Amino acid sequence: MNFYISDLHLFHKNVTRAGKDFDDRPFEDLEDMHSVIKEKWNAKVTNGDTVYILGDMAMRGTQEELIAFVSTLKGHKIIIRGNHDDIRDLRYKQLFDEICDYKEINDTLNGENVRLVLCHYPILMWKNQHYGSILLYGHVHNSIEEYYFKKCLREMNNEEFFDRRSGTKILRAYNVGCMMPYMDYEPRTLSEIVENYEEFTTKVVRERKNYKGENIPLNEWEIKIQEDFPFMEQDPSDKGNIYRKYGFEFAGGWYDILRECLEAIVARYAEDGIGLAEIDFVPCQLKEKFGTLRFYYGYTDEHCVNAALDFLNAGLTMRFKPNDEDEGDDVKTKRRKDIRTIVSTAEQKSKCTCEMCGAEGKLRNNSDIGIYRVKTLCDSCHEKRIKIMQQEKLSKI
Ligand SMILES: [Zn+2]
């Protein structure tokens, strides 16, 4: 049987709590990490199996301790080298059946033969990608780079051009880094990777219940936001968070504004070296109020602050900011101030963007013609709205 894993980073103190723990691994120190990895590996792999290690087995290949440790791991080991693998020491070298930088093999998935491309680095265009070939890779860990790679793949999967050229094969690539939640520090078969991945990746909500209790499918943009920004996942069973439970309370004309805002937030975290999985930003409520966008949020360690005073005439909103935002000037405080600016910029933009279609719009206040609810609309959506209101009035006479 074939197993896959990558980026174990053996003997690398900074992937444990004794060091920087940059992967957020659950190990106190190297001893702890090594014993868990060895136990999981040898409980599963036999000497008749083959384990493909997709790079960065360890930080160095010349330590006697490392050589001794790797020799206790069962199975035939084939290493597809990563940037940290130094395999010059003969004693280390002979522990591997094969050492290479890139490999193409066959494996089976649900009883079907599948072509696999194995490489330490994620490749955007890999061999036969449109014909069902699966890429396994490592290197990027659970980082912002993983997020951007997956984002590119999703966009390519949504691109009709690729479908027409090659049938309907969806692009499939899996990061087999041991720290990925679906890998959990053990070598896994292709079937395990594919099945676990589905289970662990974003659980996107695709429909909501209306007031009659019927399921209404969500708009495509509402699904896309959840897919592209895991911290924007919805969850109808969450009773404590209005956004998670009810989703977006405005129309799709503001999609671009929202998307730009979320991308800026992700980029701001990335500036501080924080990957997508560690983002502590929590959306609390996203709605239209007095014709403009309101984006209330909090942080995992800071309860949502959704209290705001609106001055309708001036179009101003006074927001009560999280308590500790002005205290100190550390990295977190600075970042949270910047995020506040990013969010309020998005809210400002909604004041001149049609909520229905995204075209240039303005706040419409038409109580003179019987429209009391203000909305930001473009000329044509505004006219449409007036027509509908008049028809409704006529039908009541
Ligand atoms: Zn419009």
Low-confidence stretches: none
Query: Which sequence of SSEs, written as H and E, runs from N to C?
Result: EHEHEHEEEEHHEHEEHHHEEEEEHEEH
CATH superfamily of the largest domain: Metallo-dependent phosphatases
Q: What is the molecular shape?
A: elongated
Total strand segments = 17
Report the bound ligands by name, code or SMILES: zinc ion
Radius of gyration: 26 Å
- How far is the first residue's CA from the last residue's CA? 76 Å
Question: What quaternary form is this?
Answer: single chain
Q: What fraction of residues sit in β-strands? A: 15-25%
- Please identify the structural class as seen in this structure: alpha/beta
Name of the level-1 CATH class of the largest domain: Alpha Beta
Largest sheet: 4 strands, parallel
Mean pLDDT: 88
